[in-house]
Design brief:
Blueprint: E1 5-13, E2 21-26, E3 29-34, E4 46-50, E5 53-58, H1 60-71
Antiparallel strand pairs: 1-2, 1-4, 2-3, 4-5
Length: 79
Amino acid sequence: MCLAIPGQILDVEGNDPLTRSGRVSFAGIVKRANLAYVPEASVGDYVLVHAGFALTVLDEAEALKTLAYLAEFEPEDLN
């Protein structure tokens, strides 16, 4: 099963459409993600990230709803 997680873009680096990347916060955990698939994304936007690639820009309300739902899981629920 694959899972994409919503995160908020903190900053963006690069102008090349294929190598443009950004630091993305996932409820406080910050990772770098490639932004090639979301050229319209900018700082403050929420994006859905899978395997290091932002796949789509999300509405903030939908992103926060998904993050709240994921926060309800306990680690033992994932086994």
